[in-house]
Structure prediction request, 324 residues.
Amino acid sequence: MKLLIAAVALAALSLGASAQNYPGDKPITIVVPFAAGGPTDKVARDLAEAIRKPLGGQVIIENVAGAGGTLGHTKVAKANADGYTFLLAHIAMATAPALYRKMQYDTLNDFEYLGLVNEVPMTLIARPTLQASNYAELIKWLDANKGKINLANAGLGSASHLCGLLFQQSIKIDMTTVPYKGTGPAMTDLIGGQVDIMCDQTTNTTGQIAAGKVKAYAITSSKRQTTDALKNLPTLNEAGLKGFNVTIWHGLYAPKNTPKPVLDKVNAALKLALKDADFVKRQEALGADIVDDARVNPAEHKKFVESELAKWGPVIKAAGQYAD
Ligand code: ASP
Prediction:
C-alpha cells in the first residue's frame, strides 16, 4: 500500500514538474478539421499566433479535412492525451452527431473542453457573374433557375451545410449541393464561377466581398454587421426569412484525459490570446465576436455545446438528411 502511495505521489510530482516545463521544445499541434485557406483555418492560424506567446512554445496547424469536419474531430478524439494535440472546431461538433449514422467519437465524452473562442455570422454569397444585385433579385433568379442551381458547402454537418439547408427549406427551393473539404477551396470555385452560391463565415468572405470577387446578399445572424464591406447587407430575417439566425462558434478541445495541469495552462494562455491586441483587431475586422464571457472556461464551454446539440439535433433530423 505504502509503495502504491509512493508511486502515485511520484507520478503526480513528475506530472507537476513536466507541466511546469510544458510545452518545452516539442511543438503543439492544433488540428483544423477543414482545408487550408478557409474560415476555420484562418481562425486557427490567428489563434496559434496569439496563444504561442503566452504558452512560450511552438504551435503548428495540421489540416485534417473531410466528412464535414468529422475526420479531424476523430483524429483528435483518438490522439495521445499528452498535451501536444488540440482541435479547433466549430459548430460541426454539435451538428454532425445528428447527421452521421456512425460516429467514430462521442462529442461530450471523448474530449476535454478548453474554452470557446469566437462567434461569427455567415454571409449568403454568389459567383460574381450571377445576374442578381440584391436579395430580392437573388430569390427571383433562384426561382427562375430551379433544378440548375449549385450550392457549395464543406460537407455534411459543416456550417455551410447547415446554413444552406435552412436557406433551402425557408425559400422552398432545392439545390444541388457540391461538397468540398472546406470553404477555402469552395471559395476558389465560386469566384471562378464553377458553383453558384454559398453560405460562409464572414471571416472568409469579408475580403472577397470588399474586393468585388463575389456577390453578397445577406447576413445570417440576427444583427447587421458594422464592418464596411458588410454593413449594407440585410439580415435574412429582415429580408423576409422570419427567425433565421445562424451564428457559428469555434472552440478549442483536447483528447479526453489530457493532464489537468496542461489543460489549466492552455486555458490560461487561451484567455490571454483572446485579449491579444492583434488577434482582437483581426477578428473584429472580419466580423467575428471574440467570446468574452464564462464560456471561455471548460465547464461553460461544454454546457454551451450541450445546448447546441439539443438545439440543432431536432432541426437537422427534421430535414431528414443522413450520411453513413
Ligand atoms: N466554413 C466551412 C464550413 O462550412 C468550414 C471551413 O472551411 O472552415 O463549415
About this structure: Residues 180 and 186 are 6 Å apart (CA to CA).
